[in-house]
Amino acid sequence: MSTPGRRALRFGSFDEVMPDVERLLAGHTTVGSWSLGQICRHLAVVLRRVVDLPASTPFDASKFVGEEQKNAVLASGVLPEGFPAPPEVVPDETLDARAEADNLRQALAYYRASAGPVIPHRLFGPLTKDEWHQLQLVHLAHHLSFAIPE
Questions:
Q1: Nearest alpha carbon to residue 140 among 43, 36, 35
Q2: How far, in Å, CA of 80 to CA of 55, rounded?
Q3: What are phi and psi of 132, to 5 degrees?
Q4: pLDDT tens digit sequence for 80-89
Q5: If we measure between CA atoms, which residue out of 105, 110, 103, 130 comes closest to residue 17?
Q6: What is the pTM assigned to this prediction?
């Protein structure tokens, strides 16, 4: 399943994310169901959540998709559409894009300053620190690809 109008987007480093968001703040349209503010909020919540959850956080290994699919996502830089997000990371209210972009900037700094996630990913299972970083970059690009600069 692919939303028409999405842009191809891939980040090679965390340093590339906020310049893209700043360009979007100057003028954009979105495809899909979330506004830029909601996209930024979701990304910020996820960045903080994955480093704040303790290693003892329970997980359901039966939901892991397997090494092959994990490696395909990391190699391609493409997260397939349709993975349901946990309800606690889905923004439902209208949000100010500029305020949420600032929140995302702070969350990126928080994530980068952390020791890294210690939990298994809810779908991809245990990840190395480098795999977590790669997956975060894929996740950031996935959601920001729904916002198109004007």
A1: 43
A2: 27
A3: -60, -45
A4: 888 778 888 9
A5: 105
A6: 0.94
